[in-house]
Amino acid sequence: GIIITSLAFAFMHTQYLFAVTFVYLFVFSSILCVVRMRSRGLMIPIILHILNNAWVIFGLLFSATE
After folding, report:
1. Which residues touch 39 (CB under 8 Å, ≥6 apart)?
2. 14, 42 Cβ separation under 8 angstroms
3. What share of the chain is helix, strand, coil (3-state, %, to 5)?
4. Pick from 16, 6, 11, 4: nearest CA to 45
5. pLDDT value at position 15?
6. pLDDT tens for residues 35-44?
7. By mean pLDDT, which of 29-33, 37-41, 60-64 is the weakest?
8. Does the record's keyword annotation contain Heme (predicted)?
9. In angstroms, rounded to a whole number, what is the distance separating the alpha carbons of residues 57 and 35?
10. Is 52 helix (H, G, I), strand (E, B) or coil?
């Protein structure tokens, strides 16, 4: 269930080479799985995934040095 799905999610993002990022993705995926099961829908996990991606992009945009 959750462990296999979360491992697959983290491995699909293998462009990130740092162990801490892998752990973050595993935990984030686990949270999405729990939210999916509790909400019995995909809308909330999708919104959380979008917010996570937006947060990462926002951080990259404002931390970039020239």
Report:
1. 45
2. no
3. 80, 0, 20
4. 6
5. 78
6. 999 999 999 9
7. 60-64
8. no
9. 23
10. helix
